[in-house]
Amino acid sequence: MAITADDVSLEDIIPISLDFAVVEGELLSYFYFQTEELELRLPFGSHTRLFLSEVNRAWSGRSALGDVREDRHDLVRSSSHTPSNKAQILAMPQFGLRDNLIRCELLKNEDLYTYPEDFSFFLGTYNVNGQTPKESLHPWLSCTLNPPDMYCIGFQELDLSKEAFFFNDTPKELEWTKAVSEALHPDAKYALVKLVRLVGIMLIFYVKKEHAEFISDVEAETVGTGIMGRMGNKGAVAVRFRFHNSDICVVNSHLAAHIEEYERRNQDYKEICSRLQFRQLDPSQPPLTIMKHDVILWIGDLNYRISELDVSNVKELIGKKDFETLYSYDQLKRQINEEAVFVGFVEGDIAFQPTYKYDTGSDKWDTSEKCRVPAWCDRILWRGKNIVQQHYQSHMALKTSDHKPVSSLIKRVNPEAYKKTFEEIVRNIDKMENECIPSVTLSKREFHFKDVKYMQHHAQTLSLFNDGQVPCQFEFIQKPNEPTYCKPWLTANPPKGFIAQGGSVDIELEVFVNRSTAPELNSGKEQIEDILVLHLERGKDYFISVIGNYLPSCYGSSIHSLCQLREPIQDMSQETLREVVSAPINTEKPLDIPKELWMMVDHLFRNALKQEDIFQQPGLRSEFAEIRDCLDTGIPDSLPGSNHSVAEALLLFLDALPEPVVPYSFYQQCLEICSNASQCEKVISMLPQCHKNVFNYLAAFLRELLKNSASNRLDVNILATIFASLLLRSPTKQDLAEKRKTQEFFQHFLAQGSS
């Protein structure tokens, strides 16, 4: 799947002629971009607007005389409402400081031009366990007397096949979408606004056709929280949109499984909240996070279980319909009470029996060997004002899982009052004295980050107070001859913003060292040291110092360097590390393989050969930190953490190598001979000695894992897919065909009997 921009390839280049056109299609969901050669359907959202604005600019440039530029504003239409008066035009993003001031005043006077109006949202969640639709969804989706105004339908485990997992492609998307569209309430007509899917997690958003014109700013995003924080077998998909005057975000998530893994579920939730971000209309503005919405509707298979009760006790309480007592043992309820997750969210009273786990095709509890304890895995929560739940129920008529519909009240704009308030604010702004110079007070100007570690988040707060006579706009700006406003290991959040007169804002200065920044810091070529320039529009600049110390790590160090180090890396002086990196050969005999790699593989060999879902289920971030510290300091003597955490730590170690196990210089040759086993072995025999040792050591370990496939559920394809991308990394761009070749290459070494 496309995890980063590097995963997307350029297929073709189409010249833009003067007779091309961009038209909005009949459906709410798409633009149509037509030339004689092709027709593209582009989904609504800022990505499309950004693309079309670039196309428009290129098209405008085709005319040397400029005779076609007059029609440019008709060419590309935004997914927002078309500006119909001067006040609205003034409020568009390009007006910067003025726009932010108007927006601030509008929020203060919101009660003058808004009033609440009832709209109903049907929210449904259904883990379909990889099945195809075998029955009508009508009893679920049309269970309400009156047709809802909107549908937000979430699915999990849409497709459990390896093809869906590794290539994000499945025919079941169309099958389930068709089943949904055929089961919507018959007393209304609906338009499909958005469909977004990540592997088996899918969210479909429908709206009554009469409401479609009031939907704008539609964006969709996904985030995977599976192994290495990337794979999409677990994670979330989300849609955000503006409806009348309310910004709404709908999230469908599938969190980590297994009864004991509630901390992993908490971690998944936090990662989704921090990593899932929506680009704004104005590309210069920082992205919107989930929590920056008026209303958040969260659905999905959250996978929280019932703990401290055995299966017989749980079934006894269910038989008595004593759901209140049973709910007191619910992990999600307990985690919310402890404010570990979903702070500020509300869930309705649960008056239905647990929705997991039944024998497929029946209402019988799980009769398999594992005999799972029943649990309320499938949940619906919300956050925001003026929301009333009309019902919360499961639907036993559907035999795989359940859904839970919810209705809510949101605000609706009164357009005439809005216009009047808007124009009054604009007039007041015009009266402001332009001579007033903005100024701010900074909480401090020096920040020290102590003992920064690999992949460990460090943050400190910079507070700005507007002590001037006018509102101000701030931005961190680039220093001369530097490409960005800060070093790559540092970010300021938000990097720009608006502060009303007498107001304040907190900026998080965040330090995070990843695989791209670690090598230079490990070697001492780079230091935790930077100067930020905070610029006030029409005002002065402020200089902020950021310093710190980085603790070297085996993560982001080269195989060659680590083989020279017989002691833990943090026991070495900075001077020694510099010498190891710069010196081609050490006089002392190097280690055959890095000791850190040996510790992880040996731990897994002794403890995890039969571990179910090893290298497929993620570990805990907290345990990764303990494993990293153990490898870097030698304390304690043996690795801490679960088998899954050690397995993920191994994958992250390989991913962080500056030069992969198969060096970049051999990459092309490996692709060319990938189908010839003997040639593949010959290439590996030519690798530098320490790289060859590591490759052969890992391959031998993976072959041992495959001998226990009945227990660990691994096969050659899974291991080749996971490890080939880490051992044979492309020096530049890697397309899908290349990925398949690297897998074919590595599969030769996983066959039993390979040397």
TrEMBL record:
The keyword Hydrolase applies. It is found in: Cytoplasmic vesicle, Phagosome membrane; Early endosome membrane. Residues 575-755 form the Rho-GAP domain. Residues 252-279 form a coiled coil. It comes from the Eukaryota. Gene3D superfamilies: 2.30.29.110, Endonuclease/exonuclease/phosphatase, Immunoglobulins, Rho GTPase activation protein. InterPro entries: Endo/exonu/phosph_ase_sf (IPR036691), Ig-like_fold (IPR013783), INPP5B_PH_dom (IPR031896), IP5 (IPR046985), IPPc (IPR000300), OCRL-1_2_ASH (IPR048869), OCRL1/INPP5B_INPP5c (IPR037793), Rho_GTPase_activation_prot (IPR008936). It is an enzyme of class 3 (hydrolase). Its EC number is 3.1.3.36. Keywords: Coiled coil, Cytoplasmic vesicle, Endosome, Hydrolase, Lipid metabolism, Membrane. GO terms for molecular function: inositol-1,4,5-trisphosphate 5-phosphatase activity; phosphatidylinositol-4,5-bisphosphate 5-phosphatase activity. GO terms for cellular component: cytosol; early endosome membrane; phagocytic vesicle membrane. GO terms for biological process: phosphatidylinositol dephosphorylation; signal transduction. Pfam families: Exo_endo_phos2, INPP5B_PH, OCRL-like_ASH, RhoGAP. PANTHER family: INOSITOL 5-PHOSPHATASE, TYPE II INOSITOL 1,4,5-TRISPHOSPHATE 5-PHOSPHATASE. Belongs to the inositol 1,4,5-trisphosphate 5-phosphatase type II family. This is phosphoinositide 5-phosphatase. It comes from Sander lucioperca (Pike-perch). The gene is inpp5b.
